[in-house]
């Protein structure tokens, strides 16, 4: 009697996702020859997702590169997030790409297997069977894990480990993952030390390094990472942990060098590009920061990570580079790149679902004007946005608060900037370390300007109270050099100018022009009630004095 086949392919629902019809036909033929009959096709990641939302497939063969849509890695992430995969479903990424970055990028997403085209029927069958056996052996434990029933999962994993020694290391890795997730680091370390007492396997050394990093034992973690990399220089997880430890120890340059090595080996990791962005910002390595933010933006499109924050962070990185450039040509280059990025965003608006592109563009252009020294245009743009929002009975999206805050700091409206910052910290539920760090740096950069502004403004008020109106004018003008669009100081200057204007025997034309220039700072703006009333009174006073002077 013939042995019963390991898998009854006839009752398995299979999905082949590939944008090449020739490969679909070839793989269908291979599967048909081993008994498969229920074979379905999708030409794109989007089509595959739609089918998976309707049908739970048993075997999925997904090409890594699917043209302009989701790639195989992004599709796997989304299927997991939408709970479209049964624990015993087999997900294989298939690709004609054999370059190390592409392969590592796919493998890091943890599919069940990875096949490089072309492959034979024998290899296909062997790889399916290998995964199938493991998944069937671990099925109950994997169900418990999915349900977050960790106690039951641990018992079931230990049972499999005892009964089927071939899966001992796989079981050990699952147990270690559970212990770390539950912050039971001592249990995880005990298990890992048992593993490396038999053989210093790299996955266990990496896990120990990760625990040491979490426990702030940075030097211990570094030793373990170096041991891993001495054995295999392509274990990117060790570079990542090493970079985090070096950053925590204040060795920022070495941290940047290390994370760059990791990104060069495997660039298609979201968390790795985030880490590069954070470390680059610490080093003020703006080109690396921009490249990381641009990579995050491109990788986020059509993935579960798609969010306007990546578009904003890319623009913010360009602004950050421009603002901190030592020479004018570099600054102009970054500002030009910013304009190009805005134009590109306009033609690729799938990110702008909750936030209006027009509002986003206006806020970015306001900051662009501020960085180019066009302070009046910048302030006017901010006010135009506010008026439009009020007209539509809406508020500035929290996503755009950082742009408003940083622009207000640049033009000198410090009080309003810090009021918005307080609101943002209270209300935003998407505030990232990246955005917090940029705004903290901006606030830090503004501290000296704020101190100088406050000093001159206070001296101006003191001189005004003493009746030294000319000295007061000088101090208010100095204050506005540090905060060119500050409404309060502009009104103070106007008030002092009016005092001199009505008593001075000369320079009346110059004084009038200074008044008019200062009124421009506050004209057409949504002023706080106290400033609005004061501005109204000063305008009336100016008209009265002007009429008397003839």
Automatic annotation (TrEMBL):
Known Pfam families for this protein? Response_reg
Key words, A-Z: Phosphoprotein, TPR repeat
Q: Where are the TPR repeats?
A: 453-486
Q: Which GO terms describe its biological process?
A: phosphorelay signal transduction system
The Response regulatory domain covers 13-132
4-aspartylphosphate-modified residues are where? 63
What is the protein name given in its UniProt record? Response regulator with TPR repeat
């Amino acid at each position: 009697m013939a042995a019963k086949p390991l898998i009854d392919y006839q009752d398995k629902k299979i999905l082949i996702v590939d944008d090449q019809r020739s490969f679909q036909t070839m793989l269908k033929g291979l599967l048909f020859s081993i008994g498969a009959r229920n074979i379905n096709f999708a030409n794109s990641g989007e089509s595959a997702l739609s089918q998976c939302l309707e049908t739970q497939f048993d075997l999925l063969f997904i090409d890594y590169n699917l043209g302009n849509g989701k790639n195989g890695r992004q599709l796997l992430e989304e299927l997991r997030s939408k709970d479209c995969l049964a624990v015993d479903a087999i997900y294989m990424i298939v690709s004609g790409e054999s370059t190390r970055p592409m392969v590592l990028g796919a493998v890091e997403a943890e599919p069940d297997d990875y096949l490089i085209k072309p492959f034979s029927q024998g290899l296909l069958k062997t790889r399916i069977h290998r995964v199938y056996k493991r998944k069937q052996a671990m099925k109950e434990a994997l169900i418990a894990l999915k349900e977050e029933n960790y106690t039951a999962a641990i018992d079931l994993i230990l049972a499999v480990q005892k009964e089927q020694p071939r899966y001992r290391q796989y079981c050990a890795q699952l147990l270690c993952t559970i212990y770390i997730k539950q912050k039971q680091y001592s249990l995880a370390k005990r298990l890992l030390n048992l593993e490396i007492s038999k053989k210093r396997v790299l996955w266990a050394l990496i896990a120990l390094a990760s625990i040491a990093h979490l426990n702030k034992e940075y030097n211990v973690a570094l030793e373990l990472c170096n041991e891993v990399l001495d054995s295999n220089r392509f274990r990117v997880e060790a570079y990542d942990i090493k970079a985090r430890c070096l950053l925590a120890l204040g060795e920022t340059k070495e941290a940047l060098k290390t994370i760059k090595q990791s990104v060069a080996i495997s660039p298609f990791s979201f968390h790795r590009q985030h880490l590069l962005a954070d470390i680059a910002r610490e080093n003020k390595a703006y080109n690396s920061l921009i490249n990381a933010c641009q990579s995050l933006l491109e990788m986020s499109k059509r993935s579960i990570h798609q969010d306007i924050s990546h578009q904003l962070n890319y623009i913010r990185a360009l602004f950050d580079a421009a603002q901190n450039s030592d020479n004018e040509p570099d600054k102009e280059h970054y500002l030009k790149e910013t304009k190009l990025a805005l134009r590109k965003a306009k033609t690729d608006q799938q990110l702008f679902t909750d936030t209006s592109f027009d509002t986003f563009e206006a806020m970015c252009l306001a900051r662009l004007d501020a960085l180019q020294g066009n302070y009046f245009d910048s302030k006017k743009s901010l006010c135009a946005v506010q008026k439009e929002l009020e007209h539509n009975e809406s508020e500035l999206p929290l996503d755009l608060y950082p742009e408003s805050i940083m622009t207000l700091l640049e033009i000198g409206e410090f009080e309003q900037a810090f009021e918005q910052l307080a609101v943002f910290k209270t209300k935003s539920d998407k505030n990232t370390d990246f955005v917090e760090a940029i705004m903290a740096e901006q606030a830090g950069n503004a501290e000296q300007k704020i101190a100088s502004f406050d000093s001159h403004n206070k001296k101006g008020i003191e001189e005004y109270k003493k009746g030294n109106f000319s000295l007061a004018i000088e101090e208010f003008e100095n204050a506005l050099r540090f905060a060119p669009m500050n409404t309060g100081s502009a009104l103070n200057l106007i008030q002092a100018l009016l005092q001199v204007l009505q008593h001075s025997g000369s320079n009346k034309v110059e004084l009038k022009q200074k008044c008019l220039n200062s009124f421009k700072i506050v004209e057409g703006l949504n002023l706080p009630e106290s400033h609005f009333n004061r501005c109204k009174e000063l305008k009336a006073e100016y008209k009265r004095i002007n009429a008397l002077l003839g």
